[in-house]
Amino acid sequence: MDELNGVVDDLIALVLVIEAGGFNAASARHRIPVSRLSRRVAALEKRLGVSLLVRNSRHFKVTEIGERLYLHGVTVRAETRNVLAVAQETLTEPSGHLRVACPVAMATNLVSPLGIEFVKMHPRVSITLSTTDGRPAPPGEAPDLVIQPSVDALPDSSMVSRKLGEFPYVVVASPELYELLGRPSTPAALSGCPAIGWTFGPHPYRWLLRGPGKAEVELNVQPRFTSDSLLQIR
């Protein structure tokens, strides 16, 4: 690719000079210094070993090979503009296929409706939504976009992460269990109580409760039912 370095810029400089009828006219029309235009054309002539323009204080003439390269340069300029247009279109209008993964609870209640509205707004987009239990995808199976809960900091990954929000978990119980436990009013009173465990964490039987003033209490419970699904737990 080294032999192509600068060729496009040199060709376009040649086109601008020929179309304007000279270096000074091209400089005034396109606000490019004469020295830069002259350097570009001279570099192209040196690279090709031919004379493209005959110029002196009185005459400006395009050689035969210069005319031929001018036609190629016009094509190159048009194609370059097409490339920029395609890139700009991509930036202004989303397109392509997007693979999204998120926990099933969020997929059902939030992400699926958003995804459907998104593809309605952008006809060139298609989405595949995969549900997870909240754990990172195995290597080689990572989607384009992952919505992932995390109790602690997100693990190191090649993906770019962005915090979407905080969603605190709270301790809840049925009225019957609340009465059976003697209406507990402190975290310590919950030690050893029957519970529903979420296997997302490494220890479903060990709960870390955080309270006002950054107070923390860790207690052990007795899960009688565990699941990796927040919908089932709820």
- The count of DSSP E runs of length 2 or more, i.e. the number of strands, is 9
H/E topology pattern: HHHEEHEHEEHEEEEH
First-residue to last-residue Cα separation: 60 Å
Give the number of domains: 3
**Main β sheet profile:** 3 strands, parallel
> Structural class, from helix and strand content?
alpha/beta
CATH class of the largest domain: Mainly Alpha
Distinctive features:
Arc Repressor Mutant, subunit A; alpha/beta; 7 helices; 3-stranded parallel β-sheet; 234 residues
Would you give an account of this structure?
The chain has seven helices and nine strands; from the N terminus they run αααββαβαββαββββα. With 234 residues, the chain is α/β, with parallel strands linked by helices. The protein folds into three domains: 91 residues, Winged helix-like DNA-binding domain superfamily/Winged helix DNA-binding domain (Arc Repressor Mutant, subunit A, Orthogonal Bundle); 51 residues, 3-Layer(aba) Sandwich (D-Maltodextrin-Binding Protein, domain 2); 59 residues, no CATH class. The strands form four sheets. A three-stranded parallel sheet has the order 4-3-5, with helices on one face. Strands 1-2 form a two-stranded antiparallel sheet. A hairpin with a 5-residue loop joins β7 and β8. α1 crosses α2 and α1 packs across α4.
